[in-house]
């Protein structure tokens, strides 16, 4: 007898949450305040039941190569999580040298059962604006020599994705999968880490260590402005702004995000002479999100225009769902404006904004043309998994 995939996924999300809370205690505070706000705001299930919203998380991890991303895809497939969308954070206002996808459920019933997502970024070493040929060769060599996942774990994940997970295996499989994303306490080569930090703090976090780890784990809140105020009142230092669309009296759209500032965590380092010493790194933070209705391509074009003029949001979007549906700006199940389709994905500008708000310095790419060739088709071929189009999934959910 096999475990339902949604149950396996829920267990995976809960185990990661427990692990991350032990590693980053401020995350536990964030979850507590989020739950408090959600209980007070409960009363409408238009954008998801209270049970779903309370359990909802998205995680973020970073890998160093297409081979590592392919293993990640195989692992997440066992939990019913598939790559959706292609995000190029190199094109953001504050560029980050990564391309990304999000692993998540794609079936509406699976999303309702447990909508766990993991935003997964891959270091873009082929982009010569960030990496010289010499540095790329050394980074690629370093990444190729490490092993993020036990090959036996990936082989088991492939079997589970194909045939389901026997109940007798479920607990151990979930524990081993979650443990692959625990923060390593092994000493970090300080000179190598610093060299990569000069390119980007994200590059150092990815390829300056021999493991990957949860970079942040994000609960969903029903009132992000209230959450921001309450976290600040508790003495938690938040980033300077909420990323994404402004607060509005009309329907919430897409995604709003914020986070507490990355905390200085104790890490061990190795000096060039082999000496091991204690220090700190500030790379992990606590993000929180509020989700709205998914926009159609026409709605997204309207959104992009509105974000250049956010003080006049009402000039771009109507103030009720009926008008949103009538103008074809957002997705609603069966065209019924009382049944909005929740936005399940991410905004590259917001993701880059969160990354940037928690870094000490920007990446400084060389001003030359990009000939790296990264694209959705490239990623799909590199990891041997179809990259799902978010709009096609929303069209299906709305039909």
TrEMBL record:
Gene3D superfamilies: Uncharacterised protein PF07063, DUF1338. It is an enzyme of class 1 (oxidoreductase). Pfam families: HGLS. GO terms for molecular function: dioxygenase activity. It comes from the Bacteria. InterPro entries: HGLS, YdcJ_bac-like. Its EC number is 1.13.11.93. Keywords: Dioxygenase, Iron, Oxidoreductase. Its cofactor is Fe(2+). Belongs to the 2-oxoadipate dioxygenase/decarboxylase family. PANTHER family: 2-OXOADIPATE DIOXYGENASE_DECARBOXYLASE, PTHR39479. This is 2-oxoadipate dioxygenase/decarboxylase. It comes from Mycobacterium adipatum. The lineage of its organism: Bacteria, Bacillati, Actinomycetota, Actinomycetes, Mycobacteriales.
């Amino acid at each position: 007898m096999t475990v339902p995939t949604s149950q396996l996924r829920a267990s995976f999300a809960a185990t990661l949450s427990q692990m991350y809370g032990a590693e980053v205690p401020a995350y536990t505070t964030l979850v507590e305040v989020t739950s408090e706000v959600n209980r007070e705001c409960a009363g409408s299930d238009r954008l998801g039941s209270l049970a779903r919203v309370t359990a909802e998380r998205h995680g973020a991890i970073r890998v160093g190569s297409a081979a590592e991303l392919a293993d990640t895809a195989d692992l997440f497939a066992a939990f019913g999580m598939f790559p959706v969308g292609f995000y190029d954070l190199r094109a953001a206002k504050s560029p980050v040298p990564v391309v990304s996808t999000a692993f998540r459920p794609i079936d509406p019933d699976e999303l309702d059962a447990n909508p766990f997502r993991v935003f997964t970024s891959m270091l873009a070493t082929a982009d010569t604006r960030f990496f010289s040929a010499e540095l790329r060769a050394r980074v690629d060599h370093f990444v190729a020599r490490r092993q993020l996942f036990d090959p036996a774990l990936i082989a088991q994940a492939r079997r589970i994705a194909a045939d389901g997970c026997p109940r007798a295996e479920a607990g151990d499989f979930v524990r081993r999968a979650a443990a692959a994303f625990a923060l390593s306490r092994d000493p970090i080569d300080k000179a190598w880490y610093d060299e990569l930090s000069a390119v980007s703090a994200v590059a150092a976090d990815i390829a300056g260590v021999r493991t990957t780890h949860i970079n942040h784990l994000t609960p969903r809140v029903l009132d992000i402005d209230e959450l921001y105020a309450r976290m600040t009142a508790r003495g938690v230092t938040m980033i300077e702004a909420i990323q994404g669309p402004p607060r509005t009296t009309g329907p919430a759209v897409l995604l709003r995000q914020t986070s507490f500032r990355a905390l200085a965590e104790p890490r061990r380092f190795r000096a060039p002479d082999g000496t091991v010493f204690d220090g700190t790194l500030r790379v992990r933070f606590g993000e929180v999100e509020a989700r709205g209705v998914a926009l159609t391509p026409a709605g997204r074009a309207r959104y992009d225009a509105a974000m250049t003029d956010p003080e006049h949001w009402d000039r771009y979007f109507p103030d009720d769902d009926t008008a949103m549906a009538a103008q074809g700006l957002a997705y609603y199940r069966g065209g019924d404006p009382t049944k909005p389709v929740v936005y399940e994905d991410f905004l590259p500008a917001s993701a880059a904004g969160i990354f940037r708000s928690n870094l000490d310095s920007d990446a400084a790419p060389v001003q030359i043309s990009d000939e790296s060739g990264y694209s959705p088709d490239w990623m799909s071929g590199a990891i041997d998994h179809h990259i799902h189009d978010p709009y096609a999934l929303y069209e299906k959910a709305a039909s």
